[in-house]
Structure formats: structure tokens, C-alpha cells
Amino acid sequence: MAFFLSLLLILMSSSANAAYWPPSPGYYPSSRFRSMSFYEGFRNLWGPEHQRMDNSALAIWLDRNSGSGFKSVRPFRSGYFGASIKLQRGYTAGVITAFYLSNNEAHPGYHDEVDIEFLGTTFGKPYTLQTNVYIRGSGDGRIIGREMKFHLWFDPTQGFHHYAILWSPKDIIFFVDDVPIRRYPRKSDATFPLRPMWVYGSIWDASSWATEDGKYKADYRYQPFVGSYTDFKATGCTAYSSRWCHPVSASPFPSGGLSSRQRMAMSWVHSHSLVYDYCRDQKRDHSLTPECWG
């Protein structure tokens, strides 16, 4: 009898834990694309003294003197871009750890950007993963962000997890451990980034807004704040590829588009982990985000 009771408790515990994990997407794009070392595809951009290789992982950190950032060697016009990232535990309020696409250096004040950003937090509260899309100008006085924010179904400080962006001519899809968490479709040329972008990573002080709209600031008593990156992937059509270069897919379909299982997994994430959607924010001026209309 004791054996059967123990077995029942184990099964109940497993079922309870499974309820808090998304269903399998059935397809794992990260396994389809070759991993590269950091130096194979990236270079330091700023803060070289706040960057080091730790075994096969790149560690970048922020202290009161500086943060650090890196950039891909090549610009892309579409592709799959990913990295496995481990975040700092403890008090990280005001700190942003990011992996993103941008052409800010080529088009300052009038650039495109696709973000995965981890918003630092206070003791006992989870990180917020923020995804964002900017189109042709986020520094020209008309800041039009398209934020969707999530609380992850795991602790991102306990180990490496894979975060990725699929950018195709049809849509942008964000992934966490191969689970699609957001799809941003191309509904018009005016609301979709079309110019080549580079891949970036960085850690920096964003105390003015990062944690609860700036309520909690970076506290350098807890420095250094470290982000670790490994298993880099950057595959697709570069800005120098021929016009016949075929965009990569992150689904079982060569033409792109999520499968029914991928859509089911993304629906689970939206039901269980989504904490903010700009299209549902009634305080926003949605004349500036027409993609929210339908």
C-alpha cells in the first residue's frame, strides 16, 4: 500500500509540474541551425574590459564604471538568430541584458530594431522578458514601441536557455527553448522592418525605466551584474547575399508559418506567461500601431 501511495504522489506531482510547462511545439528550430563560437561571428562593440570568455561561454558584465556589448560581423536581411543565455540571480533592478537585431549605427535616429530584453528585478520577483519591434525611428521623438512582456515558466538564472528571433519577409517570431512565444506578422511595409540589421548583445543600466517603470534602480552594492551567452546561431540571408537567397524557416514548412502544434504551444504561453501586450493597452494611441486593428 505504501508503494502505491508513493507512486500516486509522484504521478500527481509530475502532473502538477507539467501543467506549468508549455506543450511540446513538435519542432525544434534551434537543432536545425549550426552553432558557432562567439569569435566566429561576433566582435566586441564596447566595454571590452567587461567581457571575457568563460570556457565556451561569453560573460559580459555591468558595474558602476561600464557595461558591455557585442555585434555580429555581418548584417542580415533575414534569418534565424539565437543564443543560450544565463542571467544573474539576486537583485538586478535597473539592469537590461539583451539580445537583439538593429541597424541603429547605419540609420541613427531612424532605425529598425527587434528586441529580446531581460528586465532586471528585485529580490523574490521574477525577471520579465520583453520583446519589442521598432520600425524606422525610435529616436526621433516618436517612440513607437510594440512591447509584449512575459514571465517565464522557469528560473532563467538556474541555467542556460535558448532565446531566438526568426526574421523573414513574412513575419518575426520569438522563441524560448524552441517554443514560439510571439509572432509579429508583416501586415504592411510601414509596420515591418525591411532594411538589413546586425545582431547585438549587451548589458547596461536602464534604471530610468527597466524595473517597474523606474521605481527600482540599479544598486551597485550588488555589482558586477553578469550575463552569460553561448551556443550562438546566426543563419540566413546576409546583406551581401544574392537576391535569390531563400529565407530560412523555423517551422516544419519550408515556406514558413507555424504548425498547429507550434501555435498551440504559443497559445499556452499567452494564457500562462504573458503579462503585457501593447495592443491591449487602452492607454496607447493605436493610430500609431495600425497592426493592432485586425
UniProtKB/TrEMBL annotation:
One of its GO terms (cellular component) is apoplast. The lineage of its organism: Eukaryota, Viridiplantae, Streptophyta, Embryophyta, Tracheophyta. Keywords: Apoplast, Cell wall, Cell wall biogenesis/degradation, Disulfide bond, Fruit ripening, Glycoprotein, Glycosidase, Glycosyltransferase, Hydrolase, Secreted, Signal, Transferase. GO terms for biological process: cell wall biogenesis; cell wall organization; fruit ripening; xyloglucan metabolic process. Residues 17-229 form the GH16 domain. This is Xyloglucan endotransglucosylase/hydrolase. The active site is at 113 (nucleophile), 117 (proton donor). It is found in: Secreted, Cell wall; Secreted, Extracellular space, Apoplast. Its EC number is 2.4.1.207. Its main location: secreted. The keyword DNA-binding does not apply. It comes from the Eukaryota. Contains at least one intrachain disulfide bond essential for its enzymatic activity. The keyword Disulfide bond applies. GO terms for molecular function: hydrolase activity, hydrolyzing O-glycosyl compounds; xyloglucan:xyloglucosyl transferase activity.
